[in-house]
């Protein structure tokens, strides 16, 4: 084990064009106009081994989030392919499918089922989620009465406890108050250091990346600049960012 | 098609749960709670009965039941169509964050509408008893009519849902069309009595809302057999629209997140 590939991305291209938002009037007059094409990713290829933690860095607009969303299956690639080799995947995102008028408990089910878990699986983990979220009696109150911190805590607990083989994390390591932040950071660490779990993290916090990741992928303008050990890449990246 | 069925199988539980959640949240804050589901259609019926039965002197027998059957069918059709246009945009959060086959959103919505239609039907039965309409076995034929109505609206809904993502003003257009269809469908008058010849045929058979309304009235109020030929035709049209809709959504759904 450890040598199995969890995700292979081959020559991934994503362009923002395909469907362009338009009005009926515009579609009459604009037929001749050329649609502008924005290439967010221009041929990215890499493999991740099972159990590895990959950090993705790059300046704003370099295609990091686009890539994560493509891997999560929210976009389809315009060219190239993404193969998950049959692993389950989730994009760790806060509060997907929450209905603010319903109680926290009901939202655990809604959100969990949306992430592809069955009712029974959620039932088993329900207590764990509630304990981890640690928001007391508010779990039985409508989510709209929550403070923003409680909201994120519950949302984080759902995605952190309902585990998938591959986790995609987009800048969410800092939710809640200091105590919860530490707790979630530790949970995160224990989650991602499980040897079977593959994790992709997008972050601007180089400290986090350095500490957590086995490998780093540096994206710039939709292309891979370099991929390798954090110790090699991060100094180069820092230098690059300072020169801008 | 296979993909469609396996997706439905995988997600229908979610669709049911989210439909329940939506119904619950709809009434969560109001004092009268779920009673609104009964009060609202009932009040609309009273308005129509007053205006069209009393002011305009309509003497269709059992007019209140007549109106209510029409409203039941109309409301479902109307909700399905107008609800689907902005469905993806209204679920922006969901669509941009997690993968879900997009027709599941429509499926879940349709469950809430079906539920409301069920309530509406129960009120209809109450009203029919109150007005002394005689019940007959024809009432069973309600089931195939509603199934075909559902398939047809689901098909149209999927197509509109897909187009609604890229065409911003589709909502305005469907509003106009729906308003037109509403007045032409005879929710509060009897098309059979008011029109003759080709025009009646055109409005009664080719306008799905009017057709389904009329057939529901036939089996519920007139104790007669529905027009099976046209039911069959609409069934086939409905299936075709569903196939087109499924195909469109499968082709485009992964790009929705880029647009909205």
Question: Could you outline the blueprint of secondary structure elements for this entry?
Answer:
The complex is a heterodimer of chains A (244) and B (260).
Chain A: E1 5-16, H1 24-29, E2 38-49, E3 53-57, H2 64-71, E4 79-83, E5 89-92, H3 104-114, H4 119-133, H5 148-161, E6 166-170, H6 178-193, E7 198-202, H7 206-212, E8 215-220, E9 223-228, H8 230-243
Helix pairs in contact in A: 3-4, 3-5, 4-5, 5-6
Chain B: H1 2-27, H2 36-55, H3 63-85, H4 87-90, H5 92-97, H6 103-130, H7 142-166, H8 170-184, H9 191-194, H10 197-205, H11 208-220, H12 228-259
Helix pairs in contact in B: 1-6, 2-3, 2-6, 3-6, 3-7, 3-8, 3-11, 6-7, 7-11, 7-12
Describe, in short, the structure shown.
The complex is a heterodimer of chains A (244) and B (260). Chain A is of the alpha/beta class.
Give your account of this protein's structure.
The complex is a heterodimer of chains A (244) and B (260). Chain A is α/β, with parallel strands linked by helices and 244 residues long. Chain A has 8 helices and 9 strands. Chain A has a domain of 118 residues: Rossmann fold (3-Layer(aba) Sandwich). A 6-stranded mixed sheet of chain A has the order 5-6-7-3-8-9, sandwiched between helices. In chain A, strands 2-1-4 form a 3-stranded antiparallel sheet, covered by helices on one side. The termini of chain A are far apart. The model of chain A has no long low-confidence stretch (mean pLDDT 79). In chain B, helix 7 runs parallel beside helix 12. With 260 residues, chain B is an all-alpha fold. Chain B is globular and about 55 Å long. Chain B has one domain. The two termini of chain B are 26 Å apart. Helix content of chain B is 79%, strand content 0%. At the A-B interface, helix 1 and helix 3 of A face helix 1, helix 5 and helix 12 of B.
């Amino acid at each position: 084990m450890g040598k199995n590939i969890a995700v292979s991305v081959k020559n991934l291209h994503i362009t923002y064009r395909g469907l362009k938002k338009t009005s009926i009037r515009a579609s009459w007059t604009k037929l001749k106009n050329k649609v502008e094409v924005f290439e967010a990713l221009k041929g990215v290829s890499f493999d991740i081994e099972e159990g590895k933690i990959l950090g993705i860095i790059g300046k704003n607009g370099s295609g990091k989030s686009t890539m994560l969303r493509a891997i999560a299956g929210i976009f389809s690639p315009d060219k190239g392919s993404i193969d998950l080799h049959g692993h389950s995947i989730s994009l760790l995102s806060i509060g997907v499918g929450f209905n603010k008028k319903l109680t926290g408990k009901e939202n655990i089910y809604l959100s969990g089922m949306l992430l592809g878990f069955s009712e029974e699986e959620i039932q088993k983990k329900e207590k764990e989620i509630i304990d981890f979220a640690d928001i007391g009696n508010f779990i039985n109150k409508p989510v709209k009465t929550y403070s923003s911190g409680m909201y994120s805590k519950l949302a984080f607990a759902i995605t952190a406890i309902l585990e998938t083989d591959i986790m995609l994390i987009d800048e969410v390591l800092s939710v809640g108050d200091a105590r919860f932040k530490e707790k979630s950071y530790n949970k995160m660490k224990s989650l991602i250091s499980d040897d079977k779990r593959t994790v992709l993290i997008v972050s601007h916090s180089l400290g986090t990346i350095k500490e957590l990741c086995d490998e780093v992928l540096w994206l710039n303008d939709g292309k891979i600049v370099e991929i390798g050990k954090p110790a090699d890449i991060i100094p180069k990246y820092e230098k690059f960012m300072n020169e801008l | 098609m296979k993909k469609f069925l396996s997706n439905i199988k995988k997600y229908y539980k979610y669709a049911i749960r989210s439909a329940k959640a939506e119904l619950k949240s709809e009434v969560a804050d109001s004092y009268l709670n779920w009673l609104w589901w009964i009060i609202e259609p009932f009040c609309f019926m009273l308005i129509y009965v007053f205006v069209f039965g009393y002011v305009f002197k309509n003497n269709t027998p059992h007019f209140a039941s007549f109106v209510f059957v029409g409203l039941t069918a109309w409301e479902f059709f109307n909700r399905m169509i107008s609800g689907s246009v902005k469905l993806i945009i209204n679920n922006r959060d969901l669509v941009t964050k997690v993968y879900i086959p997009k027709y599941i959103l429509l499926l879940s919505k349709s469950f809430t509408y079906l539920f409301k239609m069920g309530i509406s039907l129960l009120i209809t039965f109450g009203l029919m008893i109150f007005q002394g309409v005689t019940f007959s076995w024809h009432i069973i034929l309600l089931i195939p009519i509603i199934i075909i109505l559902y398939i047809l609206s689901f098909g149209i809904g999927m197509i509109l849902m897909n187009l609604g993502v890229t065409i911003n003003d589709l909502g305005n257009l469907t509003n106009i069309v729906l308003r037109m269809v509403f007045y032409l469908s005879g929710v509060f008058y009897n098309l059979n009595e008011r029109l003759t010849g080709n025009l009646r045929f055109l409005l009664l058979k080719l306008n799905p809302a009017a057709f389904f309304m009329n057939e529901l009235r036939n089996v519920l109020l007139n104790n007669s057999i529905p027009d099976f030929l046209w039911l069959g035709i609409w069934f086939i049209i409905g299936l075709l629209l569903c196939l087109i809709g499924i195909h469109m959504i499968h082709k485009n759904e992964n790009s929705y997140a880029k647009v909205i």
